[in-house]
User: Fold this.
Amino acid sequence: MTLATHLDPTTVARAELALGGLRELAPSLSFATIVTEDGFSVASIDGNALNNDRFASMASSTQALADAVARELSLGESEFIVVAADRGHVVHVRVTGYPLVLAALFADKEAIGTSLNAARRTARRLAVLLTAK
Amino acid sequence: MAEHVVLFAGPMGAGKTTAIRALSEIEVVSTEAANSDRAAADKATTTVALDYGEISVSAAEKVRLYGVPGQKRFDFMWTILAERAEGVMLLVNADAANPVETALEFVTDFRALYERGGIVIGLTRADLVPDALIEEYSDALADALPEVLIPVFTVDARSESDMTELLMTLVANVELKQAVTEQSALFAGRTR
Assistant:
């Protein structure tokens, strides 16, 4: 039987490596995780403050709902999701070519563009790492 | 237009998405993702947010069908979708490990919805288990939760007629409970 993505040591190591640079790109980062499409956390950083498994499950559901909306409206593939709230924001970005999503929580309200840019760069970096033999 | 909301709950692989597709008059909105937990259920995809379908009971009455993810880790979706629901179609795959215990766990999880509406249980894949007796489930429910009354059927989740029968049973139970509640309130008012 094939090893589940979130249990595969190579994928976990590469996900951790990719996440490692995210804080430098976006200093207001509170928490970030790479999740499988069905809600299992592959790797995460700075997750002590919240329930990592719950965050991963919510990221999976939110991503799937956004995909369903994009599909129903014939908009094509959803690229990213932003949930902006009073005390912070959450960004989801798909890892192109893999059934994985980067979900990150940021503690400020203002720098959504910076966060989105950082999350996209990190997701692209992970895709490159996963492509390598 | 009067609208009713019914949830389809139960463990992964019980046939919730299939049942909604069998019943719905519109194309079902699904949120399926690649399933990485093949040990829990050997199927390619799994619902991670909701399934959505609709049936018209009459020109003035519509039933909205919501399927919730089967895995406990998505229980926040159960809470969100249960808020507007009037009843639960609980599907349990009879050929899974510990199906009776699983049925009891889900009834307990959706107990609040039972109290204000109703629950019916549909045992799927029962033909694959020679000793999948409805009485076993009824007895276990009576032992663990003697105050609840939940009908149990064997069903084929792919069958529109099976799922319609289960849905109509749920509707009848919800209406009966509402009628009894109204009668009780009326009786209480008269005896004051």
About this structure: The first helix of chain A runs from residue 9 to 20. The first strand of chain A starts at residue 29 and ends at 36. Chain A touches chain B through 24 residues (CB under 8 Å).
